[in-house]
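DNA-binding protein
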Amino acid sequence: MSRDSRLYDLVQILRDGRLHTAAELARACGVSVRTIWRDMAMMAATGLPVTGGRGLGYILRAPLMLPPTMFTVDEIDALATGLRLVEETDPARARAARALRHKIATLLPQAGIDPPPPAEG
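Predicted structure tokens:
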């Protein structure tokens, strides 16, 4: 796992607002506790609202909003496939699935998702 991927994963774990020990974070990321200590120091130095320390644990002091567009190609494909399936099989949720597919196609044109056809009146 690259350092960037690990840092992203650490932020995602910390977003739950709970205190996490370095050992817990190290297990989740498959690295040493020492690596977590360095990562947390680097994250705090760059301005992320991470507080805590060795022996105490780490927590995000403030909510952190990350862009929702950080998807892999496979994730986008799975999402689009699932939404199409909902449109076809669940009349109660078809409209919502169509709207979500439209939003994804608009926000992530590079993903290659075709926007749904206009809703029939």
